[in-house]
Write a structure and sequence with these properties.
Blueprint: E1 4-5, E2 12-14, H1 17-25, H2 31-39, H3 41-81, H4 87-102, H5 108-133, H6 135-141, H7 155-158, E3 160-161, E4 172-173, H8 196-235, H9 245-252, H10 254-276, H11 282-292, H12 300-322, H13 324-331, H14 333-345, H15 349-361, H16 372-383, H17 389-401, H18 406-428
Helix pairs in contact: 3-4, 3-5, 4-5, 5-6, 5-8, 6-8, 8-9, 8-10, 9-10, 10-12, 11-12, 12-13, 13-14, 13-15, 14-15, 16-17, 16-18
């Protein structure tokens, strides 16, 4: 803008925008001031050029500061997402930040503060990554108790030093001499670059995260204890979050948590055994019980395994006795489909034949032609005063039309009478 000036002669060797603007403004000056104004041209060029250089330098510094801040923020984010136990990667990332700062050419005092801020930021990001992954271990590294053991003052932790490796705890005061403020300690000293305020804030953050984890663990334990055994017994799996032994220990303590997890595991085992027995015949179930029955001097594990097996067998056998038709409908998808089609088409023969065959295959002695739900629905339709008598008669005739065996016809009559009695008792209560 201000042109180029030969430093040796002081002469302008290349005009710039300043020369053009000055020369255009000169004729417009009053005659009495024109010579004086023209004489100030070079002085004005020097002042303007210096001012422009300062402005450009400040713009350059502002640009470098924005770029440095952006890159350091990206490095901080990467540290926060990385494995907090990966010391090599952390030290590399931290050193990248230090190298970037050193390239800015800051004066020593400003550089000292920027370096201090950066190493503190990197250390905090690493601890926050640990807190997100394992807040309890973060508290242990600070030398602070978890909520179950009570909080401890962080005074010792502020000056503590040690390995950031898994399973280690920081608890020794550093005996290192006071270092050069510019020279930072390596990543093996995770607390050395944190201020007391930073440590207190991180401890509070770790306590909050640990409490949140305990709440989540307690919620999962309660839901799984209530729903998982039955879900596994009916479907073979549980869709919710399954708590681990560590969750029980964290919530209830090591001893009580171990006992509760043992009881929980037994209930799950009962559920698995129940699901596995669904398609076994009654004879096979009794044989499995007989084979697994513990003898004299059997171990606690054998007794618990038999107890789970016995409870699972009892659940299956009771369900088969209570509602044989409903049991096979729940276990075998093709029978469920047959009953759904029968209800739509009023053609019950196929569904009844499939249901009876399945019950006979499982060794159920008291075979029932209908699931209890179908029997109750048939009785309710017959007893419905708003329905036409012809419709009720036709529906029940369709049921009997699906059975040709006299014994099964008699069972159907008995089943319908029994369903009617139960409905009557329920209505009168």
């Amino acid at each position: 803008m201000y042109g180029q000036v030969d430093p040796r002669s002081g002469q302008v060797v290349k005009s710039g925008l300043f020369d053009t603007l000055f020369d255009d403004a000169l004729p417009g000056m009053p005659e009495s001031q024109r010579a004086n104004f023209a004489g100030q041209k070079e002085a004005m060029r020097v002042v303007g050029a210096r001012r422009m250089a300062q402005r450009q330098l400040q713009q350059r510094k502002d640009y470098e500061q924005v770029e440095t801040t952006t890159v350091l923020q990206a490095i901080t984010t990467a540290i926060g997402k990385a494995d907090p136990d990966d010391t090599v990667s952390f030290e590399t990332a931290r050193q990248d930040g230090l190298d970037l700062i050193s390239k800015r050419g800051l004066d020593p005092q400003i550089r000292q503060q920027v370096v201090k801020d950066w190493v503190s930021t990197a250390a905090k990001a690493r601890f926050e990554a640990l807190i997100a992954r394992d807040p309890k271990r973060a508290l242990e590294m600070f030398g602070v108790g978890t909520p179950t053991s009570g909080r401890e003052a962080p005074g010792d932790a502020i000056q503590a030093a040690g390995s950031f490796g898994k399973g280690d705890r920081i608890g020794k005061r550093t005996s290192d001499p006071v270092p050069d403020p510019i020279v930072t300690k390596p990543a093996a000293y995770p607390l050395a670059n944190l201020s007391p305020n930073d440590i207190r804030r991180l401890i509070d953050q770790a306590h909050a995260a640990n409490t949140a984890q305990l709440i989540e663990a307690r919620t999962n334990i309660t839901l799984a204890s209530q729903n998982a055994p039955d879900a596994i017994a009916n479907t073979g799996s549980y869709a919710g979050n399954m708590p681990s032994p560590g969750d029980f220990a964290a919530v209830y303590g090591t001893e009580e948590g171990g006992e509760q997890y043992r009881d929980f595991s037994l209930k799950l085992d009962v559920g698995r055994q129940t699901f596995d027995m669904r398609t076994m015949s009654n004879q096979a179930i009794h044989a499995a019980l007989s084979d697994a029955e513990p003898g004299p001097g059997s171990s606690l594990e054998e007794q618990e395994r038999y107890s789970a097996l016995n409870e699972a067998a009892s659940r299956n056998l009771k369900a088969r006795t209570a509602d044989p038709g409903g049991y096979v409908r729940q276990i075998f998808p093709d029978i469920e489909l047959a009953w759904n089609d029968a209800s739509k088409n009023a053609d019950y023969q196929g569904a009844i034949i499939r249901s009876v065959a399945a019950q006979q295959q499982l060794g159920i002695e008291d075979v029932q032609p209908l699931p209890d739900s179908i029997a109750k629905r048939a009785v309710m339709s017959f007893a419905n005063h708003n329905a036409k008598v012809s419709d009720s008669y036709t529906g029940n005739r369709d049921l009997f039309g699906g059975i040709s065996d006299p014994t099964l016809r008699l069972k159907l009559v008995i089943q319908l009478i029994y369903a009617g009695v139960l409905l009557s008792l329920n209505i009168n209560q």
